[in-house]
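Researcher: Next sequence.
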Amino acid sequence: MNRPHYILLPVSPLFIAFSLFCAFLLNLLPWGQFVGVPDFVALLLVFWGVHQPRKVGIGTAFFLGLLMDVHDSTLLGENALAYTLLSYFAIMLHRRVLWFPIWTQALHVFPLLVMAQTVQLLVRFCVSGKTPGWFYFVESMIAVVLWPLVTWILLAPQRRAVDRDHTRPI
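Model: Next structure:
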């Protein structure tokens, strides 16, 4: 099935900041300690790292990681390290990932999210000597399932109309 390829309008930096703020608020909700709830900040960092690597980079990831460290009361720098590596690899893969269909993109995002969780797990293991078990990685699988929805929602403001109205300048 041949779908049309949309030419996207430039994204507003305010929209990027608002989406990252909303993801941070979703991580602040008390459901964050349940098994299977994805890390929304990590998911959006990967999304914006793939789609807008010049606007959301490693510095943003580090700052959001420090905020998550303070919120989670974890070792300072645990989430910052994981988010920084996540953002770096997302930026590194951004040209390749954008050529694929949405579900193949999700399969490329999955190892990035697992890697970020593995870094967090290794830091926690070095500090406390405890591991949460294999269900810890269910969060990455849920985030990959949410990838098409997140992509559709966050790219919606940038899409042009399919049937162009000749009275509008864009």
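Model: Helices lie at 13-28, 40-51, 58-72, 78-97, 102-128, 138-155. The chain is about 65% helix and 0% strand.
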